[in-house]
Amino acid sequence: MNLYIFTAKFYLILFVFYLFSLEAFSEDTEREVLTSYEIMKTLTYSKIDERLLRNEDGTRADYRTITVGDFNNDGKSEILALALSKKYRDYVWGNNNKNFSKGNSYHQQGNELSKNGAWKSKFISINNSKSSGKEFLKQWNIKIIGESRCVHPAQILPAHLNKDAFLDFVIVCTGYDGYPYPGEHSLVMLSKGVNTFTINEFTDSKGYYHDGSTADFNNDGTLDIMLADSNTKKLHVYINEGNGKFNKNNYHFPQFSSLKTYTTEIFDINGDGFFDIFLGGYEDGGGSGNPTRILFGNKNNKFSTKQMVVIPGISGFENVLDVIKIGNYLFIVRTGSRPNFYKGALIQQISIRTMKTVSTEKNNSMDWIRRIFTLKDFNNNIYYGSLIDRTKWLDFNFKNNEVELIYKKNFLLNLEGLYKKEKDFYIIKDSEIPFVPNYDTEVHKLTKDRLRKRAARLRIGGFLESKKTPKKYVETFIELARLRDKEITDGILLPIEKGIDGSIRPLVKHQKKINEKCGNVERYSGDTLFFVLRTNNHTRMIHQQCVYNYFKNSYNNISKDEIAFSIYRSFMHSAPSLGEYLNNYNQFKSIVANNLTSKEKGDNIEKTSSSFIKDWCLPQNKYQRNIPFHRLEEGEKCPSKTSLISKETALDIFLSEYNEYLDKIISTKGICDDTFKNYKYLRELIRERKDFEC
Questions:
Q1: Minimal CA–CA distance to 535: which of 482, 581, 584, 576?
Q2: For a disulfide at 202, which of 22, 246, 292, 313, Cβ 3.0-4.6 Å?
Q3: In whole angstroms, what is the distance from residue 598 CA to residue 276 CA?
Q4: C-alpha to C-alpha distance for 259 and 273, rounded to whole angstroms
Q5: Sorting pLDDT into bands at 50, 70 and 90, what band is 366?
Q6: Is the four-CA dihedral 523, 525, 526, 531 of positive or negative sign?
Q7: All residues at 6 or more sequence positions from 412 whose CB lies less than 8 Å from its CB, including other chains
Q8: Could you tell me if 353 and 332 are in contact, meaning their C-beta atoms sit under 8 angstroms apart?
Q9: Which residues are bridge partners to 227 per DSSP?
């Protein structure tokens, strides 16, 4: 009897152990086959306020590197990202991006400087828990063993790469982003228990690795890593040996074909059970670009250009950034190509069955979308779009094979009905509240550097009106701003820094919280409020709406600061009258005219800046010379087979495509030779961006 009971208990224990083993095995198996695409694109995430992702030194997360998930299995989500060092960012893109165009010798020196550890990127690790619909972001304390870091990370890929229960990370690195584009090693960060990781280089050579993905290439049950190297124009597969080691294997891709790409994903596109390779990138490239392609897989995971399909391009949006599969369709994220490089965003819907374009949605004025995700709102409704709030304007629902934008393209930021939309511009309307000057306005001189962004500065005093304060005396400095670089904007700047004179002091105490919530007024230093008179920049209107909402909420909900809201609202409603006053003020008008180029003289704030007059020509046939030339070089009009472009567009093309050519003719003094008629126009075009003497 005792033997029978013992035997029964023994088999019962074995059976329970068997059940637990099956459960554990199934969980581990699911983890190990869940690729980086499946983790990032098929799981659902909540949108992130990217402005909160900053290091203690103020450096922000590089938006393309943000990844979210339950990385320590505590049932809550964490955020991991990387921030470029301030030294690196300022050296390469400082001075309003002018540093990027300083020539090869400048960037060769930058490449040497980037070898200093202070130029390496830093991790940002945050707990992304939520409470009552409001985010509370606290530090996620992780321990990283190892000193390996990269200068310029392109992507963080979450994937299970070892045998434990925690996610690991692949850090794809490009290296110094300037001539001669030397590349650097990519990194792998393997979990070593809860909140602990080891980090090491895993590539056998440096490369300009712009993107990557994971999949089981050799069918051994563990995920391997694929990297896209833009320098060698190759796809490199690193086989996971299971012990933290990764060895490059050339079996899976042809070694004599150019597979240059800047964007890649691995997933089963055509539903045949084998994973496929999506290759996107810069399709235009001045005639040397690469089309967006799909390499179809097979049971051996050996890929060939013979089993490939080309995705239709979109003119003007030939820069491909990401892709997601939804049902029987691909949704491809694009941004502007020449001459509007990295401007605006477009989402292209492709039928997997026909590989033809079904629909497109675009927004020319928004910032470009880094990645596309499956998202959920507070009610757990599923939608698709950008992970960060900054680039939400093409987020969409997809139901019954139809795309429905969540934020309609014609969405108008009207701030109490003050703005109207005409074509691509937000324009402030006349309001019922006038500005009444109290004494003579004093015009102040501005430095040459400040005049590039501002038309004039003056001290102004007078009455503003509002519902709460029928007549409010205001005395302060005011500047009329004109932005004519990457946007067309006229507006009024109101400084609110400490020590400012006049009755706007109640605004000063809010300046820190305004900057935290809405950010500084882009491209201006100091603590400043900005009142848009006219703009084609959607992001600038979003910023103004954010500031308005802040003051309104400070009155309604938080501090009951009626005075601050009243003053801000008074300025907002007086802005049309202020703009008209400034434009008609003779002394101011004279100084503005003197500060503008000859082409801009006589313009007023209600007209598009004449600096955007299209007076340069761009050849359209790739077999012609592709260098822009002034229309007066060959007469009054551009010849046939060329298109009219603005001087800003021409300058952008010269600096991005023909910078070496410019450096050469400057160093040889050839730019001073008027035998070439176009050189006199070229000198004027590049004078503020290049140093030369004639």
A1: 482
A2: 246
A3: 57
A4: 23
A5: confident
A6: negative
A7: 419, 421, 426
A8: no
A9: 212, 236
DSSP state, 138? E
Contact between 547 and 529 under an 8 Å Cβ cutoff? The reply is yes
Average pLDDT value over all residues in the chain:
80
Rounded Cα distance, 462 and 624, in Å: 59
Please report, for residues 222, 469, 470, 575, 580, the alpha-carbon distance to residue 570 in angstroms, rounded to integers and kept in the order given.
Answer: 64, 9, 10, 8, 16
Pairing state between β 196-201 and 143-145 = parallel
146 close to 180: Cβ distance less than 8 angstroms: no
**Residue ranges of the alpha helices (H) in 369-510?**
448-451, 505-508
Our CA angle for 284, 322, 209, nearest 5°, is 75
Beta strand pairing call for 436-437 and 454-464: antiparallel
Confidence (pLDDT) at 444: 66
Interhelix angle 659-667/104-113, rounded to 10 degrees, is 110
Given this model, what pLDDT does residue 635 score?
Answer: 67
CA dist 674 and 473 (Å) reads 57
Which tens digits make up the pLDDT trace of 219-234?
999 999 999 999 999 9
pLDDT in tens, 225-281: 999 999 999 999 999 998 889 999 999 998 878 888 999 999 999 999 999 999 998
**Are 615 and 634 in contact, with CB atoms under 8 Å apart?**
no
DSSP state of 117: G
**Partners of residue 329 on adjacent β-strands:** 326, 351
Paired strand residues for 375: 45, 383
For residue range 12-68, list pLDDT tens digits in order.
554 444 444 434 333 333 434 689 999 999 999 998 888 778 877 778 899 999 999
Per the model's pLDDT, the better-predicted residue between 285 and 318 turns out to be 318
Asked if 279 and 293 touch (Cβ cutoff 8 Å), the reply is yes
Is residue 491 within 8 A of residue 531, CB to CB? The reply is: yes
Contact 431, 413 (CB under 8 A): no
Judged by phi (left if over 0) then psi (alpha if -120 to 50, else beta), residue 219 lies in left
What percentage of the chain reaches a pLDDT higher than 90?
A: 38
Contacts of 86 (CB under 8 A, 6+ apart): 57, 58, 59
Region for 181 from its dihedrals, namely left if φ exceeds 0, alpha if ψ lies in -120 to 50, beta otherwise: left
Residues paired with residue 326 on neighbouring β-strands, in sequence order = 329
Residue 666's pLDDT is what? 86
Given a cut of 80, is residue 613 above it in pLDDT?
Answer: no
Amino acid at position 77, single letter: S
